[in-house]
Amino acid sequence: MHEWALAEAVITAISDIAKKENLKELKEVRISIGELQQIEQDIFEFALNQMKSDILKNTRIKIRSIRARLKCKNCGNSWRLDQQNLESQASEAIHFIPELVHTYMCCPKCKSPDFDIVEGRGMFIESVRGAR
What we know:
With 132 residues, the chain is α+β, with helices and mostly antiparallel strands. It has four helices and six strands, in the order αβαβββααββ. It is elongated.
């Protein structure tokens, strides 16, 4: 159900942009989804398509996944999310609250829990292209 809530938020944001820009039709929307969101992309796309209103009915939605990259503040080591094995409970928690990654992970090199999420967090509407 998390995917449906995110899809609803995206549809609302896109519709608001269309109204603000006085667009009568949206041609293309580009969305980026960070790996830490752990979205089931099929469900998310289905939800988006089910929620499309009149202004969005012919809109082509392109989704780009951004792999998570983490960097240790202690030793400077960088790594990817898929380089660590997460238990299903941890994975589920991160799915709902990506910031919990700090609770379940540490630097694979020095074991420090102090790291930055360099990329791959959140969801962004990259662009909206339409016609007036």
